[in-house]
Amino acid sequence: MPIIDIHIHLSDIDSFHRTAIDLSKVDYSAAGLKAEFDRNDVILGIGMGVSEQTKGAFPDSSSPNPMGLDLEEQVPSFLMECVGINPNRLDGKQAQDELDRIEARLQSPEVAGIKLYAGYYHHYVYDKIYTPVYELAAKYNLPVVIHTGDTYSMNGLLKYSHPLTVDELALQQRSVNFMICHLGDPWVMDAAEVVAKNPNVYADLSGLVVGDRPHFERFMNEPLFMDHFRRALVYSDHYEKMLFGTDWPLAPIDLYAEFVRRLVPEQHHEKVFYENAFSLFPRIGQRIAKL
């Protein structure tokens, strides 16, 4: 079965480099990612744009918009990109220039959507500072992907990354589709309700486990851990709006695929691993046709 991994990273972020070396034991490079894609029948990935200007500064308030995949000189042909947004630069004299650069990038065919790092940046997703970004998303018919739940940095603030904040946003912006990343973990039941209630809200299953095989085995064999997510999936009962993603390099793709196969009932595997991506990301079809 072909797979689309809708949540990976390929940016020069210090914490990603350290995680790849110390925890997941993956080759954090475009070549390393392509090798994992080939071994696991992943035909396309979507990278979440993010950057840091100073080593270890993520989330970096000084990063200019748009943030992209800067680990390599250019985006590999087997990836698309969700353009990362630094809201701290969307206010003041430079705001229009920042928005102009974001819009110019959104016109590129390899761009699949827009990424907001709620929690990492201290703004609620329904704040007015993001309104011009949502207007661009509607103009170009692109989804907005939102980090929710725990942050991979102690500098994040969890009140901004709670999935319930997406409920208010989804009501305000009905013409835009949104994706809750990481199923809002640890608030997975809240995320499940936001997906079930709002026709324009999806969720991905990325980043729920970080590490190598011993780490995965420990959690996959813990019923309380697995049931934490299964309960939310059953409650939401919208497998057509759940998408597979790994959050690579936080975990090897083969291990993460095995984990999600255990979570999701087999009759929904084709939707979650492949078909649902086409519903949320309109440009995927054209990109795959060119591969």
From TrEMBL:
Keywords: Lyase. One of its GO terms (molecular function) is hydrolase activity. InterPro entries: ACMSD, Amidohydro-rel, Metal_Hydrolase. Residues 94-282 form the Amidohydrolase-related domain. The keyword Ion transport does not apply. It comes from the Bacteria. This is Amidohydrolase-related domain-containing protein. It comes from Paenibacillus polysaccharolyticus. The lineage of its organism: Bacteria, Bacillati, Bacillota, Bacilli, Bacillales.
